Amino acid sequence: MSPIKSGTSPAHKWLYIVLSMLGVMIAMYLGDMDTFTRVAVTSVFNITNEVYDDDKSVLAAGERVLTMDQLAKYDGSEGSPGLYLAMLGVVYDVSREKEYYSLGGGYNFFAGKDASRAFVTGQFDEFGLVDDLSGLHSADYIELEEWANFYEMDHVRVGVVEGAFYNKKAEVTQHWKDLQSWIEEAKDERGKHDMEKQMFPPCNVEWTRAEGSRFWCTARSGGVGRDWVGVPRQLFYQARQPRCACVRDRGPPYTNPGAVSDTGDLDSPHVKEYQGCHSRARECKVKEEEELGR
Fold first, then answer.
1. Alpha-carbon separation of residue 248 from 233, 254, 257 (angstroms)
2. Bridge-partner residues for 214, per DSSP?
3. Which residues on neighbouring strands pair with residue 114, listed in sequence order?
4. In whole angstroms, what is the distance from residue 100 CA to residue 115 CA?
5. pLDDT on residue 9
6. Would you say residue 105 has pLDDT above 60?
7. Is 234 in contact with 248 (CB distance < 8 Å)?
8. Lowest mean pLDDT: which of 45-59, 129-143, 249-263, 280-294?
9. I need a surface site. Which of 23, 118, 157, 249 has the fewest CB within 10 A?
10. What local confidence, expressed as pLDDT, does residue 114 receive?
11. Stronger pLDDT, 165 or 42, i.e. the higher one
12. What is d(CA 57, CA 55) in angstroms, rounded to the nearest whole number?
């Protein structure tokens, strides 16, 4: 029996369909990142609301709701009933680490309060030791989730504090829901950046006053290991500064792996050749005035 030709078996056809769908999705967010982000985040936010619109208490057996005043008593000072802190509204017992959190410890300013914002801003005064998380940088929300996971894994939960994230019935607040949305937006942004970096890895770059900028590509430039080298191109996206990217110049496009093209991603509308640089050169030298002129 003769072997089945590539592309004629049902398995091959399904593979091409799946790869093509993946390519379309990649092209969607690379072509219109803002729209893609809004669609993705809206979907996650709606799911979150469906889960928490019932206003159910999040307390487990033995846990309780503390007011801010009650939590403030657990600051580790003399006569204090214990040593607690809150992270994203969840109260944890940190008494086993009193050398850090009690009076005189390096992290005492976290004790007896929910100072979640200061964990990522480093602002340890009365204006920074707060539970309001609006307006942070994207990466800060991911870091906050990591801090929350740290306390959840390594410390005993006491309950929740009535404040920004939970009400007096231990039901989640709008600020808590907003936080979930901000975290998902941050993860989506990170995911887009990672995928863009795989498709268009950064070039190696060096600059001298005499020679200007030199851009070149290797199989590991930009810290992205791959089985191709690519050629230097300017990468453009709306409302962002252009950067040098190594663009694949052989095989089908990244966004359409089933295509018969053999020019890689050179035809992407987001890339442009450097002036005076051969279209297939692995290295380009650009004077500063030439860069500024584009």
1. 10, 8, 13
2. 206, 285
3. 86
4. 16
5. 47
6. yes
7. no
8. 45-59
9. 157
10. 97
11. 165
12. 7
Looking at residue 289, what is its pLDDT?
52
Handedness of CA 126, 127, 132, 136 (dihedral sign): negative
DSSP string covering 141-170: HHHHHHHHHHHHHHSEEEEEEBTTTB-TTS
CA 4 to chain centre: 44
**Would you place residue 135 in the very low, low, confident or very high pLDDT band (cuts 50, 70, 90)?**
very high
Q: How far is CA 170 from CA 77, 90, 111, 271, in A?
A: 27, 10, 21, 52
Instruction: Give the whole-angstrom CA distance, residue 190 versus residue 175.
Output: 22
Report which listed range, 24-28, 173-177, 250-254, 271-275, is most confident: 173-177
Distance CA 150, CA 146 (A): 6
pTM of the model: 0.55
pLDDT tier at 55 (50, 70, 90 boundaries)? low
Distances (CA, A) of 113 to 43, 87, 159, 192, 282: 33, 9, 13, 35, 56
Exposure letters 121-155 (e unless 16+ CB within 10 A, then b): beeeeeeebbbebeebeeebbbebbeebeebeeeb
Q: What is the mean pLDDT of residues 192-217?
A: 87
Task: Evaluate whether 184 touches 142 at the Cβ level (below 8 Å).
Answer: no
Q: Which of 257, 194, 190, 265 is nearest to 37 (CA)?
A: 190
CA distances from 9 to 13, 22, 28 (A): 6, 20, 29
Helices 138-154 and 174-199 sit at what angle, rounded to 10 degrees?
Answer: 110
Pull the structure tokens for residue 244.
Answer: 């040098």
Q: How many CB atoms lie within 10 A of CB 285?
A: 17
- What whole-number distance in Å separates Cα of residue 206 and Cα of residue 215? 7
